[in-house]
């Protein structure tokens, strides 16, 4: 999706000879270190997406601590979730300039800083900046490289690798929900966020595992050419310096043999040292200029790739089905996020905390979500099954669960609906496949970036909207009804636009025949 210069192992400042050298297939494609990349991405999904799915625990603590409205407090979680996805296309600029490894390591440090600073929050608005924005941007800087690196290391088994890595979301939601609940009881929410900040430093380790995919032969050739280039620069810089260096070498040999007078050597050494330092300074200055020029070229090319990827894809919006897909994405993700944020408080209102403490409803969603991704992916790969139809059926099941969830007031009924929500939401693993069917392989990266942005907007405004509706009606029922109806509108767009497009394609040949 984003091929950085660090990742492919080329240096724009070197001669063009480097780029023209034949590159042998990397032995780590689909094997070897590629599975360490999957493991790294799996951990990233646990630490980022899993933690975000467990924010409902902290949301209750924030409501009690700051005594603010539910709509205002929900903005903290929504900012973190939304910004993680919204900044995705813009993180591509960092990936193009710095590479996936450096971007992920910087993001891990920023995410950890956001958690730690949030533990000192004095009000909700403070959390907006520290947790929503700071930790959210840090999460985005790690999340996107984790997805990109899996795509770079896999060709034949790319779908399997992406599926395995994204199951970390479900595992993370289950583990982080239990961990945060325990930490909040034992240490309080402030210490919980501080501890979580320390845990998030493991994202830097995950980033360090994202070893750039560079052919060994190309790398060795690059260093040989680079050393030759530097030698040529040295020769052109100062012929006198080389002469003095050669004299220095010769004098050292004569000194070893004992054939040179010590007084002569003492008179030559100061001149020799001064010439060496002058030449070294000149070489050092050339290296600095070369590094700066390479950085400028890298920034320009990285920005050009980023700009063409996201602002040069206007032709995508002429595809009406893809536009309908964007409208669907604007409403879909919030319907999945809202239960995670507000379910703990709904359980509290229904006086079911004792049962929910044994096995939290959010954990049920997370566990079944793992199996949903795998099973829906297997079904979609069957030759007699259409991926588009599986995708639509999963969406219909999810919207039905969202609309019926407020009607359930017992733990068992809520658990059944939550299990269906977790299973049907496994359609997330089908989104890249559906996007590729709509726009083709050539525009897949650009189109999927836009879809992720739309999901981020949905995650950003969904939970605060549900909290705002509660503040007006004092019930969560209308929040689920309204979000479910909006979700249904998006699904209807997905159903109508393909029919219209098929009708138009049939009419065009008929018009040509009449003419």
Automatic annotation (TrEMBL):
Localized where?
A: Membrane
Would the keyword Mitochondrion turn up in this protein's UniProt record? Answer: no
Q: Which GO terms describe its cellular component?
A: membrane
MF terms per GO, please? monocarboxylic acid transmembrane transporter activity
Q: Where are the transmembrane segments?
A: 33-60, 72-96, 127-148, 160-180, 321-343, 358-376, 388-408, 414-435, 447-466, 478-496
Main localization (coarse): membrane
Per the database record, which ranges form the Major facilitator superfamily (MFS) profile domain? 37-502
Query: InterPro entries, per this entry?
Result: MFS (IPR011701), MFS_dom (IPR020846), MFS_trans_sf (IPR036259), Proton-linked_MCT (IPR050327)
Q: Does the keyword Transmembrane apply?
A: yes
Domain of life, per lineage: Eukaryota
Pfam families according to UniProt: MFS_1
Key words, A-Z: Membrane, Transmembrane, Transmembrane helix
Membrane-related topology note: Multi-pass membrane protein
Would you tell me the protein name for this molecule? MOT14 protein
